[in-house]
Each structure stands twice: as C-alpha cells, then as structure tokens.
Amino acid sequence: MREGRLMTPQARSGVSAAAMGSEESAAEARLAAFRLTEAVQIRDTGDELADRLAEAVSQGWHDVVRLLLYADAVVAWTAGDPRLEETLERLRDRAQREGDDVGVATALSMLAEVRSTTESARIREESDHDLARATALLAVAEGGALERARAFMSCAAAYQRRELWELEEEMYERASALLPDCEEPLLDRVVLVNLTGSHALHACALREVGELEQAGTRLTPGLEAAEAALRVDMPDTYQVDVRIFRHLLVAVVGAVEVEPAAALTGSIETAGNPWPEAWYGSLSLAEAVRAADRGDWAEAARLASDALARLGETSSPELGLALRVAAEADAALGAPWRRTRAPLGAALRPAALGVPDAPARIGPCPVAHRAAAGGARPARDVRECRRAHRGGEPARIRPASRCAARRPRSASLGRADGGRRQLQRGQ
Predict the structure, then answer these.
(1) pTM
(2) What's the CA dihedral at 252, 253, 254, 260 to 10 degrees?
(3) List of domains in the chain
(4) Number of CB atoms found within 10 A of residue 122's CB
(5) What is the C-alpha to C-alpha distance for residues 116 and 80, in angstroms, rounded to an integer?
(6) Are 406 and 421 in contact (CB under 8 A)?
(7) What are 97-125's pLDDT values in tens digits?
C-alpha cells in the first residue's frame, strides 16, 4: 500500500509550484516595468533597464520585453537620442509578430507624435495614417488595463501635437475609464498632470487666434484637474509642472492668480529638473500675457521675447501665443522699437521672477506683425507665423525637446511632456 501524500492546491490543479512561482515573477516583472518607465524620467536608473530587459528575454516574458522596450524609447525621448524612432520601430515590429495590438498602437501613436513636425510632407501624412490606425486598433484591442490606458494616453499625446484637442480629450476619457481596472494606480497621476497641461495649452491656442471667451471654457476643467493632481503623491517635477500649467492657464484666460510667479521660480530651482528652460518660458509667457492685458506693452514685449528665447523652435501653442503677444507689443510700440531693442539679458530679464538670462535668438515676425495690426489672426496662419520666426523653416522636433524634459510620459505611465512641452509618459 502506497503511502498517501498531502497534495497542495497547485498540485491538485495540475500546476507545479515552480510554474506558479514563474507566473508570479512574470506578473511582478510586468508591474516593475511600468514603474521603471516613470523612474527613467526622474532619476538615473543606471543599468537597471538593461538588466531587467536581459532577464525578461531569458525568461521568455514577451509582454515584459515589450514594456521594457517602451521604457527604452522613453529614455531616448527624454535624452533627445536619435535612436528614438529605431527603438519605436523595434517595439512596433515585435508587437506585430507577437500579436499584441495594444503594443502596436502604442508604438504607432508615439511614432506619429515624433514625426508630426518632420520636414517631409510624405512622412507627416504617413504619421497621420499611423495615428488613425492606432486609434482604430485600440477600439477593439484586448489586453491589460494598464497597457490599454497607456496606449490611449500615447494617442492623446499625438493628437495634442496636432492641436486636435477634442480627439485628445476623448483619448484621455478612454484612458481614465480604464484606471479603476488597473492593478495599481500607476497612471492616475500622469493622467491628471497631462490633463492640466492640455487645458492650459488649449487655452493658449484659442487665445492665440483671438478666441478669449472660448479659452475661458478651459479654466474650470483645468483647475479641477490641477487640484486633483496636487492631492496625489507624485515626484516634485510633476508637481511643479502642474503648478506652472495652472499659473499659465489662469493668466491666459484673465483669471485671478492662484500663486505668485516668484514662488514658482523658487520651486523650479529646488525641483532638480535638468531642463528648466521650458518652465521659465511658461512663466515669462504668463507674465507677458498679464502685462499685455493691462496695456504695459514694453513689459509685455520684454517678457514675450524672454519666453520665445526659452520655448525653443518646435511649434507649440505656447510659442504661438508668445509670438502673438510680441507682435501686438510691436504694433503698440512701433516696429522700430523691436529693431533697436537691447539684446536679451539682464536688461530684459523679468526681475520679479528672478529668472536666469535666456539666449537672444528671436528675430522679427512679419506674419505675426501683420496679423496683429489687422486684428485676430485666422487659425490657418498660426503655423505660417511660427515658421516666420524661424526664418521660414518648417517646424521640427529639437533633440532636447521640452516634451521630454517636463511632463510624465504616460503615454508611457504617461511621459512626463519638457523641450516643447511634452506629455508625461508615466510608468
């Protein structure tokens, strides 16, 4: 008679303890990959990404490998690494081979964001098709709630880059609907950070074309998103980003100031962001708008020039509004003033902000000047105006894009958007 053995639940179900342990390890590695995507945006993670990727490959955790390839793309994005597109193409191709429609949609939408401002009209058109395909895939794709929410956020970032605000909002709504089903609240704060930024940038775009009343409709949802974000535990850089977006929003719509610019300047200095110029540019823009609203055109011109020097060359709603304010100031002060003004530096520094000097590189904008003299500029002239400030060159993404420097990329666990304000990629 054989001796009886006590069987574990795993053994009774035909699953070995080793297999169970492997599944648990894979599940934990998946969540760790999401956390790492956020970590690479706010600190030096050393060899952790490479080590985790090697482990996932050796263990055959294909979903974890794809998540870590996404984290690697976020690293490239943040660093302005030219291998970014190659990394995203690897992610897209691997996801296609492995039947992961959510991964394909994530890679396609991020590529669509990267390529939206390329000089090639053909590539821009192809990127539009990629974004449409990504959106269609997500409408029917199955997968984890975290992966799908992040993919919707990546689509939102690409729509924002095209200033298609209603579609961006729809993507965030779909991402938000998935958050309660996520194993951990890894994306919640990134959604709130990016929503705050979206309302601020949308308001900038509306005011740029003279739609001040419509810009005001962004105030309430923007403040609600900011208040919700600031109640959540998040890195210091995320908090500063929310506060600066809020400061910009209330200035653009002419609302009462929530906190002084000087307080934000102090927070920038202690936040540890290696790319603070975008933040300083937003502060200067907010104060330029305030100065314009009270008719102090000399101050508006100085602050708008400072903002333009800091916001970089990539087309964005902030850059467009700064051009508008500068053009209106030129019209009020007379074009000769702009040609003879002192170089940017201590004389043009917004002393009340305590902002470091910005490099002088902004020239006259004849398109913006003509538009300001004639009233509100039609929306179709916005990109022409922005190109004029770069000597007629088409918009393109600079290596150190603001998007990478600033917001959590949870298109990633959001991406944290720096350079031209980039969306947070998150975990």
Answers:
(1) 0.77
(2) -50
(3) 47-184 (1.25.40), 186-427 (no CATH)
(4) 8
(5) 16
(6) yes
(7) 999 999 999 999 999 999 988 888 999 99
